[in-house]
Amino acid sequence: MKRVLDEDLSITLTQLEMETEATERIIEEHIESCYALTQHIDQQISELSTSQQKQPGQDKDTETEERISATLKHTDPELIHMDEFKNEQLLSLTINLLLFIRSQVPVTKKLFQSYASEVVLDPNSAHPKLIVSPEGDSVTYTDTWQEVPENAARFDTTLNAVSREGFREGRHYWEVLVDGKTYWELGLTYPSIPRKGSEEHCWLGRGADSWCVEYFNGWYNAWHRGAAHELTHVQGRAFQRIGVFSSAPGGLVCFLGAETMTPLYCFCTGTFTDRLLQAVCPGHDNQGTNWKPLEIVDASRSRPTL
User: What's the predicted TM-score (pTM) here?
Assistant: First the structure.
């Protein structure tokens, strides 16, 4: 029971942290908007003060200026004071929110399952050292260079493969079995990702046209635009499945530990500019520890572990 409660607490705290980061971004945007509005109001006040010296109606202008100043004072964050009652209210709200989130794991899983999408990997995109299954639902690294036809879609340096179709609109969720592997990358990419040569942007998440989570010897990182975000809250944990959720309306790319719906990282990308392809990299052999394939599983049937 203690282990289950500890895991639930970890999930809850992680979700709250992600929500906090999103809220902070929104608040920062609002602060910038308010600052611009304040500057505009200050300019208007200055113009009113100047006009008072030249035109009649000084009493009316003074009243307007006082109303504007009063409004600014009410919206000044520095003038907001917390007392014991407000602190107790916030604490109670936080505790109730934690309990609610913990109880929603099965519901959350069902919600994501409703967006489950079929993923079929394109063998013509796979690096020559990768073997894509005939069904297109798994990819395996091999030390042997395969005799495959050369084409513009094939990755020739990075160990990547992408899906055949992809999508432009809606919400989509898919899961990959990573159990027993010590190195992998998976995520989403635009078709425009570079596929030839040793350019760094060929790697998932290193350019502006792809997003991924990378796992290597117990360490997780989320990548986009070449920036690595270390996922300290799950370092050392081994997940059997990784879920990837994307929302075109919300501009989101989210990664989760699928068994417990543990949030790994969420990218808020804004508006997608092209079709999105599912992308996987099973990684090299990693000194003989990473021969298992990456397998795409039926996300509509998987169940959470509580």
Answer: 0.66
